[in-house]
Specification:
The chain is of the alpha/beta class. It has helices at about 5, 25-35, 45-55, 110-125, 130-135, 140-150, and strands at about 10-15, 60, 65, 70, 80-90, 100-110, 175. It has a single domain (about 5-165), classed as Mannitol-specific EII, Chain A (3-Layer(aba) Sandwich), CATH 3.40.930.10.
């Protein structure tokens, strides 16, 4: 299974600075919103599961990356969301660096093995500094998704020809840019 099987362009968000305070709890809330309601599980349930795990120990693994994750018994399948915060957010990461890439994963409680494999895949994907820089510099959510797809072995001939501009994005309040709906 590829990470793009768990992710979709609609579950990718870019949160740009707009002068409003943005912290770890708000970042996790935004990830939960991107994941969205599913299998009778509310966004609030997802947010609570992510926050409960985060209270045990920060999921900030260093080098600007956090992998908030949790499990809920009602879910029938794993699902992921990705939030890019170019200006960074304090996440109490292991290296004390601000986090710019948050890859959230929520899974059924009974799928522990698959959950651990997914976390390892995310970690491997985000190990490359140059790749992380390309994600952070992406113009829009679709570009982020396409970069991941290509990195995982898919293809998108338009990737190398996109310009880093603000055109084509829309603001959904609070400075969050997101296309589509979940």
């Amino acid at each position: 299974m590829r990470l793009t099987d768990l992710l979709s362009p609609e579950r990718v968000g870019i949160k740009r600075a707009n002068g409003e305070p943005f912290d770890k709890d708000k970042a996790i809330g935004l990830l939960a919103t991107l994941i969205g309601e599913r299998d009778g599980v509310s966004v609030a349930d997802i947010e609570r599961a992510l926050l409960e795990r985060e209270q045990l120990q920060s999921t900030g693994i260093g080098e600007g990356v956090a992998i908030p994750h949790g499990a809920l018994p009602q879910l029938s399948e794993q699902v992921a969301a990705l939030l890019i915060v170019p200006e960074g957010v304090d996440f109490q990461a292991i290296d004390d660096a601000d986090v710019t890439i948050l890859f959230g994963v929520i899974t059924p409680k009974r799928a522990t093995g698959e959950h651990l494999k997914t976390l390892a895949r995310v970690s491997r994907l985000l190990r490359n500094k140059e790749f992380r820089a390309r994600l952070i510099g992406s113009v829009d959510e679709r570009s982020v998704f396409d970069l991941i797809k290509v990195e995982e072995g898919g293809s998108d001939p338009g990737i190398g020809h996109r310009e880093l501009t603000a055109t084509g994005t829309k603001d959904l309040g609070g400075g969050t840019e997101k296309k589509g709906a979940s």
